[in-house]
Structure formats: structure tokens, C-alpha cells
Amino acid sequence: EIGVRLVGSEMCIRDRSIYGRYIRISGDNPANGLTFHCQETGETYTVRPDELLYNTASRLIVCPTFPLTEGSWTLTVTTQYSRNRHLTQVPRKATLRFQVIDPMQE
Questions:
Q1: What are the phi and psi torsion angles at 43 (to 5°)?
Q2: What is the C-alpha separation between 29 and 67, in angstroms, rounded?
Q3: Looking at residue 85, what DSSP letter applies?
Q4: Is residue 5's pLDDT more than 60?
Q5: How far is CA 31 from the centre of its chain?
Q6: Residue 40 contacts by C-beta under 8 Å, 6 or more apart in sequence?
Q7: For the chain, first and last CA: distance in Å?
Q8: CB atoms within 10 A of CB 72
Q9: Which of 16, 44, 92, 96 is the most exposed place for a label (fewest CB within 10 A)?
Q10: How far is the C-alpha of 50 from the C-alpha of 43, rounded, in Å?
Q11: What pTM value is reported for the model?
Q12: At residue 13, does pLDDT exceed 80?
């Protein structure tokens, strides 16, 4: 089981850091990577491991090439990485739900 939390910098809106344990995206399964799903529009965006700016066991940095529009989102992290650095045969997943809000409306 892996846990994740999303941290966005107010100074740099485009870059997003994802923190967790054993979340490094590795393995050859095509499902490995990040998936962002917008609840309002139904759109799904995938980020492949080679598109990550930073990919370690405890932190991922992604610079989305798609709009993170206002609303409810679901982030799914899929990886075969494990604590002992041997890849798992079946990818593991963690899901995080988060809200994107317009800072001008606060």
C-alpha cells in the first residue's frame, strides 16, 4: 500500500510535488505512471514516468501539460516499485482526491 499527498506551490503554479512512501514510478507495465481524472469534465490525463521532472521513492514532481481546471480531481499513482527495490509483478496503486480552486474566489 502506498500513500500520497499533493503539494502545489503558490509561487510556481505549473509544478506539482507528490509526496509518499515507495512511490517511485518504475517497472515495465504500461499502466505505470500518474493518471489525473477531472470529475466535472470526465477527462483523464496520463503522465508517463519519462515525463516526470523528479522521480524518487518519496517524491514525484510533475509539470502538467494539461489544464488543471477548477473542480474535483482524482490522482492515481501506479508503480511496481517496492521497498526492497525488487519490482512487484502486479502494479500497486494509490489514489488521492483533491480540489482545484480559483485563488481569486477565496
A1: -75, 145
A2: 26
A3: S
A4: no
A5: 13
A6: 69, 71, 72
A7: 35
A8: 12
A9: 44
A10: 22
A11: 0.81
A12: no
Q: What pLDDT is attached to residue 10?
A: 36
pLDDT (0 to 100) of residue 1 = 41
Amino acid at 40: E
3-state secondary structure of 71: strand
Q: Is 103 helix (H, G, I), strand (E, B) or coil?
A: helix
The 3-class SS string of 8-69 reads: ECCCCCCCEEEEECCCCCCCCCCCCEEEEEECCCCCEEEECHHHCCEECCCEEEECCCCCCC
**Cα 10 to Cα 18, 46, 89, distances in angstroms:** 15, 23, 38
The length of the chain is 106
- Structure confidence at residue 65 (pLDDT): 85
pLDDT digits (tens, 9 = 90+) for 34-92: 999 999 999 999 999 999 999 999 899 998 888 888 889 999 999 999 888 789 999 99
Query: Cell numbers of 41, please?
Result: 469534465
